[in-house]
Each structure stands twice: as structure tokens, then as C-alpha cells.
Amino acid sequence: MDLIGDIRQIYDNYDGLNTEILVASIRSPEHVRQAALIGADVSTIPPKVVRSLINHPLTDKGLADFLADWKKTGQKIV
């Protein structure tokens, strides 16, 4: 990811360069985070990594807590 950061800085140093940075070979959610922070325009992300971005233990816990609280209210959405 250091290389991607260097590339981003080089392109940002020159006005008028109409270029987008593609980050390939993403292998983890951390790579996704780093690519976004660096300012990558496009990333190729395998399905397994995409799924790991939405399936997180804290997300699962938060959703379960929300649904439990909602059930306690006795309300229904029709």
C-alpha cells in the first residue's frame, strides 16, 4: 500500500493529469480501508473480502440488539 500512496502523491503533485488509480489484489478489509484512505479511485475486491466488510461481529451484535429492542416495543411495520 506504500507504493499506492506514493503513486497518489506523484499524481497529486501535477495538475492536469487525468488519471485514476486502480488498486488490485486486495486481500483483506484492512487493504480496502488503506486504499480508501490513500484515495484510490477504483479497487478490485474479491467477493470473500466484500462479504467480510458487511459481516462483522459488532454489526451482528448491533443488529441483534436493535431487533430485540424493537420486539420489546410490541410495534409492527406493515
Can you offer a commentary on this structure?
The chain contains four helices and two strands; from the N terminus they run H-E-H-E-H-H. With 78 residues, it is mostly helical. The chain has one domain (2-73). Strands 1-2 form a two-stranded parallel sheet. The chain is elongated.
Largest sheet: 2 strands, parallel
Structure classification: mainly alpha
Alpha-carbon distance between the termini? 48 Å
The strand line-up of the biggest sheet is 1-2
**Beta-strand share of residues:** 5-15%
Helix content: 55-70%
Q: Tell me which oligomeric state these chains represent.
A: single chain
By DSSP (H or I, 4+ residues per run), the number of helices equals 4
Chain-averaged pLDDT:
92
Notable features of this structure?
about 5% strand; about 60% helix; 2 strands; mainly alpha
